[in-house]
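Hi P.,

Sorry for the delay on this. The queue was packed all week, but I finally got your sequence through. Input first:
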Amino acid sequence: MIYCVEDESAIRDLMVYTMKVSGFEAQGFADGADFWSAMKTQRPELIILDVMLPGEDGLTILKRLRASPVTGDIPVIMATARGSEYDKVIALDGGADDYLAKPFGMMEMVSRIKAVLRRTAPKQAKVISYGGITLDGSRHTVDVNGTPISLTLKEYEILRLFMENPGRVFTREVLLSDVWGIDYTGETRTVDVHIGTLRTKLAEAGDRIETVRGVGYKLEVKK
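Then the structure:
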């Protein structure tokens, strides 16, 4: 089931119709109140969320979704008429998995839905340990020298990518593509912000995430 929160009825109906003929179950909502009511009865596989909504706006809804352990991992695609770099960064920093700027084509929407669902599908669980950092894929947990560390979904995905590829240098653009699933060549501040918070949360192990000047970041496994 895909939930579509869009206040313009013509656009919402077209989006829902397109998703249904593309093989998805879909349901549309005009505002946050109707959306939250539906969330009490069924958890969707993915949410398409307009930023500009009457009452509770899309970014506030996204923040509430990410703050709850019940809904925090539901993939969200933000849809908005805003096209500025700033608004895109705000949505991504808030935990959006992808971004559709209006006006967008229905086939583009379907393509992005499929890409996000592939990217967020459960991965093979495994335990990886490097330099005091242990990531348990089955429990979705991280600890440093035995101390549990609480990470956001994006921080966890960045760390997982680093730990699965120790020593490999990742550019900011590659991290945006692999973790957020978008081709985004504009402002890459969102990557630096997430790397900074990840380093802080890893405490004494944070310096294992090294900056490669002029290139990007890598996990250095020190002896």
